[in-house]
Design brief:
The chain has 484 residues and is α/β, with parallel strands linked by helices. It is built from 19 helices and ten strands. The strands form two sheets. Strands 3-2-4-1-5 form a five-stranded parallel β-sheet, with helices on one face.
């Protein structure tokens, strides 16, 4: 099997090229270049260097993956007839996808490769920027910039910023996390005689016309904590501080039990914000719900039982397991089949025998929601009306029984029959696909607004409720109704 010798051309010009690499380039007869656009190659051409480059392959494809694959396929084909040398910019093992593909083939025994190394452009970058990577350093590809994996508390170097379009993509990704005027540094041809270093506000990143295939972008660590308020780790740190020895006395004394009422309150306030269709209010209330989650997780961590990572891991595992139609090869026809699979997987996941159809309903649910859950579970096994009229007839029947109990003046009987009526009304809501809890919340809001309208009208005429009749109040009520 013939060998593919892989060389790195370094980050700068010929003066920075290691002597050993220079000697190999001088004597090799079958030299292939990923790109000839490199200072070393330009200088060696004057010394009579001969080679074949793959620059033309870039023009044939829209995706880099296709470019790299064609280059590797060509190298493998060439190596079947003779040993060859393949040279890449920088170091072969730093940001070189073609070399990684060759390594995969080598591990499979399909090719033999010998990596000779070279100087990485990172060395020149550290020198030009005068930074020490021991302080914390990230190195990412501009064409694969996933913001959730980036920490802005460390030095960040973004490579492959080879044109304005790539620079624009990087800019937009960074602006989702950093202020528009955050200063970044554009470094081109680091360590060479053609080196250019320019510091610009982030919003101007893609306006630099000198960007080329030797360009990288440096993002310095964030120094102002407020710029990181949006990141999850900042939230976690704040919660830990509040619960810590030097934190807030109220937060320190909370327990899972003491926080239960607050979680319910915040959940209902979120529902109210959703009903109002007020995005800013929704953001605020979602934050309050998240606060409750984080406090419970921090209590778990303080007590040594679990942490927020355990919460997230459990959730992600459950979501993947219960969505095989998304993360595996299970096929589903519609939403109903998704819900059916969800319940079956949930039961298998729990590993428990079902003692009753009605098991698994949280005891803390409100009466309306619990009634809806009970009815839905019973309906799944056929205990349900098929049409609407019997549902309505049942409400009429229960109302008559409530009125009869009132006539008898038996309080326990009244309460029992009224409960039956409410249960029947919940069944109607379920039958017509209305969430009963949501419906009553909307009515509560509606009542509040109309009643407050009456109050404001009375204030305008300098009167109190004791000064007006029910009929007058009802007129104001109808006026409020018309204004909605």
């Amino acid at each position: 099997m013939n060998k593919i010798t892989v060389l790195g051309l370094g980050a700068g010009d010929l003066d920075q090229l290691p002597l050993g690499i220079y000697k190999i380039l001088q004597k090799t007869e079958n030299l292939f270049l990923r790109t000839k656009d490199h200072p070393v190659i330009q200088e060696l051409e004057a010394e009579g260097l001969t080679y074949q480059s793959y620059d033309a392959v870039y023009e044939k494809h829209d995706q880099f993956e296709e470019v790299y694959q064609e280059i590797v396929d060509s190298l493998v084909t060439e190596s079947k007839e003779k040993s060859i040398t393949y040279a890449v910019p920088g170091h072969p093992l730093v940001a070189e996808k073609t070399v990684q593909l060759l390594i995969e083939l080598s591990n499979q025994g399909k090719v033999e490769i010998d990596i000779k190394g070279g100087q990485s452009f990172l060395d020149a970058m550290f020198t030009s920027l005068k930074i020490d990577p021991i302080e914390g350093f990230q190195f990412v590809d501009a064409t694969d910039l996933e913001q959730e994996y980036i920490t802005f508390r460390q030095h960040l170097i973004i490579c492959q910023v080879y044109d304005q379009m790539t620079a624009s993509h990087a800019k937009l990704k960074l602006m989702e996390q950093l202020p528009d005027d955050y200063e970044v540094t554009i470094v081109t041809a680091a360590g060479s005689e053609s080196e250019q270093i320019r510091t610009v506000p982030l919003f101007e990143l893609d306006r630099d016309t000198s960007i080329n295939n030797l360009t990288s972008v440096y993002v310095p660590p964030v120094k102002h904590e407020a710029d990181l308020y949006h990141q999850f780790e900042t939230l976690r740190s704040v919660i830990a501080t509040l619960r810590g020895p030097e934190g807030c006395p109220w937060d320190q004394k909370q327990t899972h039990e003491s926080l239960k009422k607050y979680l319910l309150e915040e959940a209902y306030e979120l529902l109210e914000a959703i009903d109002e269709e007020d995005d800013d209010h929704i953001i605020e209330e979602l934050g309050d719900v998240l606060l409750q989650v984080m406090l419970h997780a921090q209590i778990g961590e303080d007590e040594g039982y679990f942490s927020i990572q355990d919460v997230i891991k459990g959730l992600v595992s459950k979501l993947i397991y219960r969505h095989p139609h998304v993360f595996s090869d299970v096929n589903v026809e519609d939403e109903e089949e998704v819900l059916k699979n969800w319940q079956e997987l949930k039961q298998a996941e729990k590993g428990e025998a079902v003692t009753t159809i009605l098991s698994g309903i949280p005891k803390e649910l409100s009466g309306l929601l619990k009634a809806e859950k009970l009815q839905s579970k019973a309906a799944k096994v056929g205990f349900d009306w098929k049409e609407l009229p019997p549902v309505v007839d049942k409400i009429k029947e229960e109302l008559a029984e409530v009125l009869a109990a009132i006539e008898l003046k038996e309080q326990s009987k009244i309460e029992s029959e009224l409960g039956d009526l409410l249960f029947s009304i919940v069944n109607l809501a379920r039958f017509i696909d209305v969430n009963p809890e949501q419906a009553i919340l909307r009515t509560n809001m509606k009542f509040t607004k109309r009643f407050q309208f009456i109050e404001s009208k009375l204030n305008e005429i300098n009167k109190t409720f004791s000064d007006v009749s029910l009929e007058e109040m009802d007129e104001f009520w109808n006026e409020a109704k018309e204004l909605e």
